[in-house]
Amino acid sequence: KAKVAASPEPVMAAMMNGMDAFSASLMKDKREIVIAPTIYKFDTFGAFAEEFKLGERDVVLTNEFIYKPFMEELGLKSKFVFQEKFGAGEPSEAMIETMYEAIPYDSYDRVIAVGGGAIMDLCKLLGCKRPTSVHELYFKREPVVHEKEVIAIPTTCGTGSEVTNISVAIVKDEKDGKLTGGETKLGLVSDDIIPNKVCLVPDLLKTLPYKPFAASAIDALIHATESFLSPHRKTVTSEMFSVKAMEMILEGFRRIALEGPDARIDYLGEFVTASLFAGIAFLKAGCATVHGMSFPLGGTYHVPHGESNYALFSKILELYDEYEPAGELGKFKEIVARCLGCTKDDALRTLNVTLEKVLPLKPLHEYGFKEEDIKSFPLSVEANQQRLITNSYRPWSIELSERVYRECF
Question: What is the pTM of this model?
């Protein structure tokens, strides 16, 4: 497994000369796997609440549509706060600041996140010492200091955020330390923000409408795929988790493609487990080009994270296949072929057909993407997403980013 082994020192040194310091530090990390939280599984939220003895000093951040059917009747004394109170969509500087005002730091000892990726990302911040500026925190000019216990309960099956060391937010963009007037999506990365405990409650996913379910499940597949194709940071253990996640998700998608959206209901436990496995895999092996290129799309046009990744996923795989069809991509195609019942040579086409049945693919212009973005977005990716682009399956460039955006337009 040549790509799992550490690179020879001269080669590694040459690669690190061309990347930012943070990416270089990730590549030096020799840990085989990182599973920081203790993981639990419960049949109901009530069983979780009883086991963890939820009380007055607990703050539960969730959505009202989750609270009403699963929590209200329990009569718990914890403080329940609804994410929608802070604004719609993914976390932003303004949303985080509003959340800080609504939940004073001295009002709780423990944080329980019950929701999708946005709630997970917000609760990771609630577990940390309050910064003087959200903007400075995300541009890594303020330290991350974890102080309070965070318990994560995912209600989607995509982000894997319940086990990861990243909190993503849409922030005011900078160039050379000055605000540009635009926005971008950045990840705050630190092992200190990994939740302390994760509780899987598949029953909570029953409230998730089909479209966000499909987008989040595709996102989990992309996490597993990018981790599997990781050229420098993948380990034997992360590969095990990414392969299992891909197998479980592809089987679920095969059922949906054959039987329709309702086929997911009896498979929700597998989907939420696969999302967790994919999160464990990419915590160590990393995500890459798909995520790096989707961030400005999501940040500028507020495209849901799973959809923005999906919009670029197939085209980027196509370019990988054009430049380097063997190696780890060849192994990926073998996995797809085995799971979807096709030949290796037909794997990427069959994958695309299956994904279209799960969720129709939209061109970028339907999200508001403009022709001038074909030139400007690659510059934002190059400037702000090196921690992801460095992990590309093949060496990436501004020109390749332009090609992907143009052909997806």
Answer: 0.83
